[in-house]
Amino acid sequence: MTSLIPPRIAALKTVMNKARVDAYIIPTADPHQSEYVPEYWAGRYWISGFHGSAGTVVVTADHAGLWTDSRYFLQAELELKGSGIALHKLVAQAQAEYMDWICSQLKFGQTVGCDFWCFSLSQIQAFDKKLTEKGLHLKDCGDLMQDIWENRPELSPEPVYEHVVKYAGKSRESKLKSLREHMKQLKVDYILLSALDEIAYLLNLRGKDVHCNPVFISYLLVTMDHCDLFLPPDKLPLALEKKLAEDGVHVKNYFTIKSVVQAIKPGKKILIDPSTLNAKLSLQFPEGSLVSDASPVMKMKAIKSKAEIEHIRNVMEKDGAALVKSFMWLENLLKKSKTCTEHEFAMKIKEFRSQQALYVGESFDAIVGYNANGAIIHYKPDAKKSATIKAKGILLVDSGGQYQDGTTDITRTIALSAASPEVKKQYTAVLMGHIALADAIFPEGTKGIQLDILARQYLWNMSLNFSHGTGHGVGYFMNVHEPPQGFVTSWNQRGQSEMLEGMLTSNEPGYYEVGSHGIRIENLVINILHTKSATGNYLKFETVTLFPIDLKLVHSPMMTKQCINWLNNYHKEVYSRIAPHLDATEKKWLKEKCKAI
User: What CATH number belongs to 306-589?
Assistant: First the structure.
């Protein structure tokens, strides 16, 4: 792959020269600001060969660089080797530090180009301000890779389908009614939605346009009495199109969105989320018509309904049962002195999940990291060259499933042989931090950044740390990474977002030693009401993920009485909830893994 990159960079520089662009920015994004993009918009991967889900490439006349965060440093170093692309390590995740580099490298009067379709209005406004201050120009030069990208993938032909109310919990009519009440409060005539998960949630529709994420390419223009759903041609079965029309949702061609926006009459007010709506469309509206605010659908989606929460609890039982079968399979294989590769185990997990009711697919490609590969935080084992798992060392497994009744995301680190005291202490510090966060009681509205320290405190006591966020929001039969909330160490959007009743979030502290091993323990937690008092509502976390935590890695002298009680109670619940889904042999295996300490 790396041998293909230099000619592609050279071809791009030729196009840049013709377009009179001195620096060109290539994001990991599509016109919908998706975290995981359809293959058609995977230009950053095509131009760099870097597989990570986050990163930005900047190309100038004499330099090509990739900016990515600490989750991908090791992966990027491996994948960029020999490509001629330099790795720039971000200090703060999700920050546009490449703009500082551009400002330091270009000369007064030079031009920075990018495709406004693939950047949000907020980003472009920030870029323009920064570049103008340095005497540089920002230019919407479109997709400069269009004519040099041979065999570019097409948009997915997979049809859109309905997420039935039985599992969705609320009808699209009730969701649209709630949205329109919000529109009334803001006194707006339209709201334009472009975030794919928001559109899928609001209309109770799902698709297969993005790998592992059940969404579809679309825009949705909502008025007080109807909606226009913009889809690529031939994506909707006629019966479903008719059903949507009966609910006031009319289908239009995806590629007409720009002309429809331009035709909106002056004087109308349009609500947009400047963090998700692309700059290209944002700049088409009549002057003075935009009302910028966070999308109300994002919050609607993040707060799970009672019906969704009940489904989530049930989905965790069958997901846990699938994992029991998976880890039993691996353990029995290794006992027979046999081996398998990381990729083979990832496929075995997928196979056992696929046997569960209402399974649709994986929520992300499983991370199966044996020994040193476990230190590569977002490692994806390759089918042809992944490591062989043996009965020695430790194994980190991060995986998840998409079911019609929920989305799962779980990480376990297991010992394949006796672990050293040092590794056990590291693991126990991670576990104690996980428990401290899981056991927290806090005022509703507390920010994720205020809770993050709970998960790190025991590692910090050992002068250790981890460089990724402690947790992220999780969708409901939706994207496994869902804004707005999360446990993070910086004041970015997820750090500032309030924790509200009904939110589903991951709790996943870890520790990683390059060249040696990785440790991470992840469960999903739901914010539920703890108490109501004179000082407000207080929330706690209900841990909903169900699978045993490896006791062989626990250093018992470190564990407090509170931690021991939490772990024993958790394992008691794991066994009682999963056992009904298992046969006698599997129950025996699980009972041993869930024994009290």
Answer: 3.90.230.10
